Amino acid sequence: MIFVEVRGKLVYIMLTIYILVLHFVVALATPDIAKWDQLAVTFPKYTPVPHNENEAQRGGWVLLSDDCLDTTSPFRGRRYFVNNDRSLILIYDSHGHIAGLQLSYPAELKQTKEGKYQPAFVYKKEFDGGYYYVTAYFTEPGKICCYCSVRDMDVIGDKLIFLNDKTSRVVVPMTVESKKNMTSKKWMRGKCFPNMGLHFWYDQHKDTSCKDIFPFFTIYNAQGQLHAFGMGIDIVLKSDRYEYANPAFLGRFMGDKVFPTCLKDQNIITPTMHVFFTKVSSYTHGCTGADDQMYT
Q1: What does the pLDDT read at residue 106?
Q2: Model confidence at 169, in pLDDT bands (50, 70, 90)?
Q3: 289 phi and psi, to 5 degrees?
Q4: Can you give the pTM of this predicted structure?
Q5: What band does 223 get if pLDDT is binned at 50, 70 and 90?
Q6: pLDDT for 12-69, tens place per residue?
Q7: pLDDT of residue 283
Q8: Cα(53)–Cα(46) distance, integer angstroms
Q9: Measuring CA to CA, how many Å separate 46 from each of 90, 169, 243, 269?
Q10: pLDDT at residue 3 above 50?
């Protein structure tokens, strides 16, 4: 009996040590999640945007729609815009904390409804007409309008979710554990660009039609942490908040494997916007080691 008891304790101790070592190895192999403590838009301006609803109101942002009250809306949260400009819409939760953002344009400017990811441009009729929106949430959308939801007010969010249509979404990996892990989720490695980071593109290849390009992309730092993303719209629209790159120049963000051939023949420049969750620095947004170490 004594031998059995001692042997049981030894097995328990050995199992405990094994579990601790396993956790330690996983911790070493998996990059920490970046702390999203800042929010800025538009490269290379890095224009800060209000983290909370009160700050937004003091800055002149006005309520566009309370989609916590409107249960028929395809969106969640209280949506704000400034100077009657819908190039950027900020979304706040029931506690007034930033919960997401949108880009939009008037429905009459829509050129086509065809394409694999056209449903990501979600239509909503507003007080002054219809608009199409692309939407990114920084937390679980189902909790945005719930007062029972508790979020850390010191960080921008705990996850990144792209609205793929009115009912489905794409959840973005918070870290890059390996290239294989990313491609299995349709995320394709692009190129690293200084003061941005390493770009990943969703379900995109050389033979992808321009009408089938997903309107979002993600950006990781050299530590494999998600620290930024970008979004675009499929029409020509001018705004100081948007970025405009010649289609041929986009290869510097995509690389040969994910640069659609159709872009080489495209003579129009559609706008995009980069969104940054951390303070821009050479350490967090640089390219040193990003291509050669983390992602090979």
Answers
A1: 94
A2: very high
A3: 85, -15
A4: 0.85
A5: confident
A6: 445 444 444 333 333 344 458 889 999 999 999 999 999 999 999 999 999 999 999 9
A7: 60
A8: 20
A9: 16, 27, 12, 21
A10: no
The first and second tokens of residue 59, run together, are: 């800055």
Q: Which phi and psi angles does 15 have, rounded to 5°?
A: -65, -40
Tell me the two tokens of residue 32: 């920490």
Extract the tokens encoding 8: 């049981």
Report the distance separating Cα 157 and Cα 91, nearest Å. Answer: 12
